[in-house]
Specification:
The chain is mostly helical. It has nine helices and no strands.
Length: 187
């Protein structure tokens, strides 16, 4: 079965009926998104000395939590709910790492030369600005438009977005047009 052509809600129903195959199907469908989110957190927090695999593990744990706690009656897309849960969990993970009790560990990484901020600059000030304002911008869109914006921002093609959100390609195009129009008003 092709995981890209599956409806999330049908798969969630089958998961609630204890289908391991359905659970694997949902994980395979969302794995590229989860990996991308983990990579973004790893990129923007290199000074913490945490490997990509640790971020990926935390993202997978939070995705599992999203699958088990999702409620269809709350009027939210599963994609939106899952990415919100993952983002919040990864942000909490980073806050925990940056807490005062972990400061000696982080400082020792800097002192031992494992992390060198002067030579490890991989993104510009503009990229950092957009990363910080991304959440604010995403939240300004409606619930239908926000997932399309986030996927497109993360580099997914129009067709991939249509498959992931289970909507027609034309709908993706219309929503992205609305997003560009809204961004032009802001800028």
């Amino acid at each position: 079965m092709n995981y890209k052509n599956v409806n999330d809600y049908e798969v969630l129903y089958m998961i609630r009926e204890s289908s391991e195959e359905a659970e694997d199907l949902l994980y395979q469908k969302y794995l590229p998104i989860i990996k991308h989110m983990a990579a973004n957190y790893c990129l923007f927090n290199k000074d913490l000395g945490v490997d990509y695999d640790d971020y990926l593990q935390e993202a997978m744990i939070s995705f599992s939590k999203a699958v088990s706690t999702y409620d269809e009656n709350k009027n939210a897309l599963f994609y939106t709910y899952a990415t919100t849960v993952i983002n919040k969990h990864l942000a909490h993970f980073i806050r925990h790492l940056k807490s005062s009790k972990n400061a000696p560990f982080i400082n020792s990484l800097h002192d031992d030369g494992i992390i060198d901020n002067a030579t490890d600059v991989s993104f510009s000030y503009v990229d950092r600005f957009f990363a910080e304002d991304f959440c604010n911008l995403k939240n300004s869109f409606s619930i239908e438009v926000s997932p399309v914006f986030e996927l497109r921002y993360n580099g997914f093609s129009y067709k991939e977005i249509a498959v992931l959100l289970d909507i027609p390609l034309h709908t993706v195009q219309v929503r992205l047009y609305k997003i560009r129009k809204e961004i032009r008003k802001i800028i």
